[in-house]
Q: What sequence folds into this?
């Protein structure tokens, strides 16, 4: 697969005006020559700051969530149109922390992906199994069910998403899926997308879950791993830049 890889940082609920300034300046300064696409998915209030900091660079911006609704009486929600106004090209949807702590269902995640696409924002749709599900031999069934809801809802637009395979047991734990474990699931997701869209080779399927400077190269060398969704390691410029280098 020869398409350029996508490396997306997921800051989660971290950051401050002063800290972001130093981190983003260091990332932008180190980007030169990177052929992969690099994005930072940051807390929504910081998008305005990052728009200024990224100015003139190849760094792309993203959000970590988006409302399924276009506008109106939805206190606390942020719409895709608002994110768009602040330069977001991507929005993570269905991160396991949102599924787990905010009760997001497969259908809500699919509706959020649809709302993002309606504004020209590419949803990064997260799927992944828990440890109990893996140990119960249900990995494939779970990730396929999660992706199926999105494919069904988006119909002919299903090929316009980015997918992130993030095994829940690997997120923030230091316990990474082996390249072989990850590749196996990526191949399943690719086949599912192929059946639905007919051009799954164009879709980026990212791996996420304790990807770091040391393990990135071996994960990114797998044929169906088209990039990474990076949590903890995206908060340290040298680590994040090493992952970008590994992606070529
Ligand atoms: P991690 O997080 O890299 O810190 O494991 C990845 C994610 O949750 O997107």
A:
């Amino acid at each position: 697969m020869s398409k350029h890889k996508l490396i997306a940082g997921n800051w989660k609920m971290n950051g401050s005006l002063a800290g972001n300034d130093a981190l983003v300046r260091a990332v932008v300064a180190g980007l030169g020559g990177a052929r992969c696409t690099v994005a930072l998915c940051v807390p929504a209030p910081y998008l305005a700051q990052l728009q200024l900091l990224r100015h003139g660079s190849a760094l792309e911006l993203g959000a970590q969530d988006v409302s399924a609704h276009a506008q109106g009486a939805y206190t606390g929600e942020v719409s895709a149109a608002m994110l768009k106004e602040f330069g977001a090209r991507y929005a993570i949807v269905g991160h396991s922390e949102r599924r787990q702590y905010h009760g997001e269902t497969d259908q809500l995640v699919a509706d959020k992906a649809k709302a993002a696409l309606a504004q020209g924002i590419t949803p990064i749709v997260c799927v992944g199994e828990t440890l109990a599900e893996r140990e119960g031999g249900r990995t494939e069934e779970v990730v396929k069910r999660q992706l199926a809801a999105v494919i069904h809802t988006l119909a002919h637009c299903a090929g316009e998403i980015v997918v992130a395979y993030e095994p829940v047991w690997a997120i923030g734990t230091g316990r990474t899926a082996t390249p072989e474990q990850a590749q196996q699931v990526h191949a399943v997701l690719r086949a599912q997308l192929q059946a639905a869209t007919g051009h799954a080779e164009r879709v980026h399927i990212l791996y996420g879950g304790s990807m770091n400077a040391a393990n990135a190269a071996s994960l990114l060398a797998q044929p169906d791993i088209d990039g990474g969704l990076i949590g903890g390691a995206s908060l340290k410029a040298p680590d994040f830049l090493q992952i970008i280098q590994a992606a070529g």
Summary: The two ends are 13 Å apart (CA to CA). The beta strands are 6-10, 37-41, 60-63, 88-93, 122-127, 162-165, 205-208, 227-230. Residues 179-197 form the longest helix (19 residues).
